């Protein structure tokens, strides 16, 4: 249990960050928990893994990669403890393998849309967006990247360090400078925390403003998203909850101010009208096809045991 609680706290505090990493971490934590417990029977096993799944689910309410990862792991089968334990562990391994393969595949698909000499703008720190950029660069395309700082957690600093390590020419700008540089940009490439049934994107705060600037400048806006980041719940009309994080992330001295409230939404919503293409591991699709991805790849109700 201690290891699972440690993983949950790392996800909550954003020590583990990025939708894909969160999903893989949760899957791994559930697997290790299931292998470690010693229940008296299948009912107790089910109850304990349900509790563990609930703990992980409550860490980041917006991240559909987390809930979908847990759902996929929890679709285990078994009438007794050892068969259920083996089934759950197999599901967890399968999710992690699928996630890693998806990043590579999206890199291949998305890189075909990148031209030699392109300037790419990216926001936050997305492993799949970076996979597209690196795959294009490794193919010999001369690309340059403009990365935003991605305040208030400054994930963009991680992005520029990664790009620098790969030898890719990169510029770092503050988030509010996007409109000033957008006319230098050939395409925007961002990751995704959630893709809804309508094809709208829930992603790091600031993404919607970038999409609006790109739309105004007639600059292509590409989303890189594994299919497990699409939200089945939105098929039935549910809204994606937007996580509100601590005020201290924005203003560490907020407790000294008596008449100031700090709002710190972690994500915003980009309408599908501002998205040109969504690159998934099963192909590049227009956002309007998101409904079909959810129906065909994830199923209407994500059948199986869900805590």
From TrEMBL:
GO terms for molecular function: ribose 1,5-bisphosphate isomerase activity; S-methyl-5-thioribose-1-phosphate isomerase activity. Substrate binds at residues 17-20, 60, 203-204, 229. Transmembrane segments: none annotated. Its EC number is 5.3.1.29. The keyword Isomerase applies. Keywords: Carbohydrate metabolism, Isomerase. Pfam families: IF-2B (PF01008). It catalyses: alpha-D-ribose 1,5-bisphosphate = D-ribulose 1,5-bisphosphate. The keyword Isomerase applies. Gene3D superfamilies: translation initiation factor eif-2b, domain 1, Translation initiation factor eif-2b, domain 2. One of its GO terms (biological process) is pentose catabolic process. The active site is at residues 124, 193. InterPro entries: IF-2B-related (IPR000649), IF_2B-like_C (IPR042529), Initiation_fac_2B_a/b/d (IPR011559), M1Pi_N (IPR027363), NagB/RpiA_transferase-like (IPR037171), R15Pi (IPR005250). Belongs to the eIF-2B alpha/beta/delta subunits family. R15P isomerase subfamily. Catalyzes the isomerization of ribose 1,5-bisphosphate (R15P) to ribulose 1,5-bisphosphate (RuBP), the CO(2) acceptor and substrate for RubisCO. Functions in an archaeal AMP degradation pathway, together with AMP phosphorylase and RubisCO. PANTHER family: METHYLTHIORIBOSE-1-PHOSPHATE ISOMERASE, RIBOSE 1,5-BISPHOSPHATE ISOMERASE. Reaction proceeds via a cis-phosphoenolate intermediate. This is Ribose 1,5-bisphosphate isomerase.
């Amino acid at each position: 249990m201690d290891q699972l609680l440690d993983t949950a706290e790392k996800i909550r505090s954003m020590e583990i960050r990025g939708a894909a990493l969160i999903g893989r971490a949760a899957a791994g934590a559930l697997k290790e928990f299931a292998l470690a417990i010693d229940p008296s029977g299948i009912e107790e096993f089910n109850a304990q893994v349900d509790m563990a799944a609930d703990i992980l689910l409550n860490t980041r309410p917006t991240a559909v990669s987390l809930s979908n990862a847990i759902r996929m792991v929890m679709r285990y089968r078994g009438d007794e403890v050892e068969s259920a334990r083996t089934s759950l562990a197999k599901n967890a391994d399968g999710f992690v393998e699928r996630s890693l393969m998806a990043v590579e595949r999206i890199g291949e698909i998305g890189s075909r849309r990148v031209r030699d000499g392109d300037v790419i703008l990216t926001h936050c720190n997305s492993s799949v967006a970076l996979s597209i950029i690196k795959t294009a660069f490794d193919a010999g395309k001369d690309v340059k990247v403009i990365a935003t700082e991605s305040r208030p957690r400054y994930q963009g600093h991680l992005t520029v360090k990664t790009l620098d390590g790969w030898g890719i020419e990169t510029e770092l700008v503050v988030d509010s400078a996007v409109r000033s540089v957008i006319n230098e940009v050939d395409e925007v490439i961002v990751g995704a925390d959630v893709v809804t049934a309508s094809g709208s994107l829930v992603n790091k705060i600031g993404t919607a403003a970038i999409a609006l600037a790109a739309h105004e400048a007639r600059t292509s806006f590409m989303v890189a998203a594994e299919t497990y980041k699409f939200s089945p719940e939105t098929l039935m009309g549910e809204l994606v909850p937007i996580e509100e994080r601590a005020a201290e992330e924005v203003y560490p001295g907020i407790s000294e101010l008596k008449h100031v409230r700090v709002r710190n939404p972690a994500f915003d919503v980009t309408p599908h009208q501002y998205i040109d293409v969504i690159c998934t591991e099963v192909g590049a699709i227009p956002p309007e096809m998101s409904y079909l991805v959810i129906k065909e790849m994830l199923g209407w109700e994500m059948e199986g045991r869900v805590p």
